[in-house]
Design a protein that fits this description.
12 strands; binds protoporphyrin IX containing FE; alpha+beta; four-stranded mixed sheet
Length: about 475
């Protein structure tokens, strides 16, 4: 009897569901019957600054005071409305493409990668570029990069000192740069000084490094709304472009072009439905898009993963045991659980947006056509009803649960879902596993690292500082 009276001791599910909330395109009459979303009561300029520099405090504060949906002043024209509800996300990811153009077409990346790249274009142009780029990013095509990624990871890990503090983010960037150079440009190992390949590698590294300087935030705001880059961005790009065009020219003339599997060589051979090849400018725009979209994101997501693991002993130990015990299936499952939880709790891109082209319902609120809607990945990922104990890092949530399409969105979704998701997952799996196999890591400071915002990403303030205690 006493047993029956005891509260249930089985843990409740660690992944749940949000209560339903109606959302989607509506008529003007329906819009008239709905309330407008509540507004953040702060001066506009201050809101833009807070959203760009302190997004976590800003969005969590907004939700606490105003609920799942609120209007604010953001870095895009028009007053964006932010939502934290998976049903609202679903209404946007499943909408007709012409109803939901992406806000990246208005982002500071536009003058850098041009208005016609897969990241910035909308409508038929976007579909055309996406179709051309998809084949080399397919899961099967990515499988062939595994070996190359393993080599890049092992090479890098072997260099790290034992017993001295080390920031992981730049180390992870060294690996992701190698992967990009090999997978995208087909440049393996260290190119010889003086060649365009060498220059391209150096210039890419410098541009990405410079983009993490604090002043770059200002440069980024200055570039907003322009079609052409200005100032520092323009100077840096001119150098990078020179090398990129030289590499394209040399590859076009390469005798082994048809046998090559790197993305540049595949794109050089790709044809549109009208039988047209990509121009050099189009190739440059897409290559730069892939470099910028794929390099810092993957590196910082890995850095966050270790920032969390080294502060969560139970999860850390479980991963090391799984990886070192030699059962491949168990190791893969634990690696995936850790990555899913890392991307849930520290999504390196914390928000994505669309400008709706019809009046839209978001729960009990309505917004007119033309409103930018920001889907806060960060807030969706921290809903108590979907993820009980949301602020804890608990990879075990994912032992019996699959990530939900509209409640786990680190790669966005719909027709704009991250093109490099399979490549990013492959890279992160290989690197995480190699590190867990070889290294005992410890956080330099037991306090969690705060997040800072660089460009569109949210990264660990000190780059996830750790000490290698032991190398196996
Ligand atoms: C952990 C690593 C990564 C994360 C978290 C990430 C996240 C994202 C997100 C949130 C979007 C916007 C999706 C949307 O608006 O619905 C996106 C788009 C994109 N990503 Fe990634 N990404 C990662 C790695 C990569 C890699 C490795 C590449 C390629 C080398 C890449 C290429 C792209 C491209 C081309 C787009 C634009 C797709 C489109 O608009 O059609 N990403 N990514």
């Amino acid at each position: 009897m006493a047993l029956l009276d005891e509260p249930a001791t089985t843990p409740t599910a660690l992944v749940g569901e949000a209560p339903p909330s109606p959302a989607g395109p509506i008529s003007e009459e329906e819009l008239a019957g709905l309330a407008a979303p509540p507004e953040v009561p702060l001066p506009g300029a201050l809101q833009v600054l807070r959203f760009s520099q302190r997004q976590i405090e800003f969005v969590f504060g907004g939700r606490r005071r105003l609920g799942d949906v609120f209007r604010f002043h953001g870095p895009v024209p028009g007053r964006p409305v932010l939502t934290a509800h998976p049903d609202h996300v679903r209404s946007i990811f499943t909408a007709k493409v012409e109803h939901v153009p992406t806000l990246t077409s208005e982002s500071p990346l536009r003058p850098v990668v041009g208005p016609n790249s897969v990241l910035t274009a909308n409508g038929p142009r976007h579909l055309r570029q996406r179709k051309l780029l998809l084949p080399p990013f397919h899961g099967e095509a990515i499988a062939q990069y595994r070996e190359m990624i393993t080599e890049a990871a092992e090479r890098e890990i072997a260099r790290w000192p034992v017993g001295r503090p080390l920031a992981l983010a730049p180390r992870m960037q060294a690996i992701t740069l190698d992967v990009i150079m090999a997978g995208i440009f087909g440049i393996e190992g260290k190119p010889s000084p003086g060649t365009p390949e060498f220059g391209l590698r150096q210039a890419t590294r410098q541009l990405v490094q410079a983009s993490t300087w604090p002043v770059y935030g200002l440069v980024e705001l200055m570039n907003l709304g322009n079609d052409e880059p200005i100032g520092f961005t323009k100077a840096g790009l001119r150098i990078l472009d020179g090398f990129t065009f030289s590499v394209i020219k040399r590859r076009r003339a390469a005798a082994d072009l048809e046998e090559r599997r790197d993305i540049l060589s595949l794109l050089l051979q790709a044809r549109t439905e009208e039988g047209e090849p990509l121009t050099d400018q189009e190739l440059r725009d897409e290559l730069l898009t892939l470099v910028l979209a794929g390099h810092e994101t993957t590196a910082n997501q890995l850095a966050w993963t270790w920032e969390r693991l080294t502060r969560t002993p139970a999860a850390h130990e479980r991963l090391l045991d799984a990886v070192r015990e030699g059962d491949d299936a168990a190791a893969s499952a634990e690696v995936d659980a850790v990555l899913h939880e890392s991307m849930r709790s520290r999504p390196v891109i914390p928000v994505i947006g669309r400008r709706v082209q019809a009046p839209w319902q978001l729960g009990r609120y309505g917004v007119p056509a033309g409103t930018p809607i920001s889907m806060s990945i960060l807030l969706v990922h921290h809903r108590e009803d979907v993820y009980p104990d949301p602020f804890s890092f608990r990879p075990e949530r994912w032992h019996d649960a699959k990530p939900g399409t509209y409640s786990w969105l680190p790669f966005g979704g719909g027709t704009r879902r991250c093109l490099g998701a399979a490549l990013a997952m492959a890279e992160m799996r290989v690197v995480l596993r190699a590190m867990a196999q070889r290294l005992d890591l410890e956080a330099v400071d037991p306090e969690p690292e705060r997040a800072v915002h660089r460009n569109v990403t949210m990264i660990p303030r000190h780059g996830a500082r750790v000490v290698v205690r032991r190398r196996l």
